[in-house]
């Protein structure tokens, strides 16, 4: 994928994460690879684990409350098209696809959710390690 907008967004987002703007601790990030759904429920921010196509396998309690969607209704669905279509764009999904392409990632950016809710400002930390994708989301 070569797109100037996405490449610029990616450079800015990875720099922000590298400069310590992430809200997840280094210990939490390293634990994500093997984190279960019940462990993810204890996190003080949204945590969504998806495969490389966006299918959800973990949708934690915080994210469920933020989005108004029960985890049982999110598991197996595509995050970008079924659960949060407001993220199916160059900013959010573009960053995710770049993370998949790169094979590993830590990128951080601000975003506004608008689907089925009033506009909600969040901070997003996309993390990919060992083939596992997480989108960590904290309300601003």
Summarize the structure.
The protein is an alpha+beta fold and 140 residues long.
Question: Can you characterise this structure?
Answer:
With 140 residues, the protein is an alpha+beta fold. It has a single domain, classed as Beta-Lactamase (2-Layer Sandwich). The protein contains 7 helices and 5 strands, in the order H-H-H-E-E-H-H-H-H-E-E-E. It has a 5-stranded antiparallel beta sheet. Strand 1 and strand 2 form a beta hairpin. The longest helix is centred in the N-terminal third of the chain and has 15 residues. It is globular. The chain starts with a helix and ends with a strand.
Which properties best describe this structure?
about 140 residues; 5-stranded antiparallel sheet; about 35% helix; alpha+beta; Beta-Lactamase; 7 helices; globular
CATH topology annotation: Beta-Lactamase
Helix content: 25-40%
Would you report the number of β strands?
5
Low-confidence stretches: none
Domain module tally: 1
Helices and strands: which structural class? alpha+beta
Q: Give the N-terminus to C-terminus distance in angstroms.
A: 30 Å
Q: Give the mean pLDDT.
A: 91
CATH homologous superfamily, by name? PAS domain
Q: Tell me the strand order in the biggest sheet.
A: 2-1-5-4-3
Largest sheet: 5 strands, antiparallel
- Compressed to H and E, one letter per element, the order equals HHHEEHHHHEEE
Which shape, going by the Cα principal axes? globular
Strand content: 25-35%
Quickly give the CATH architecture. Answer: 2-Layer Sandwich
CATH class: Alpha Beta
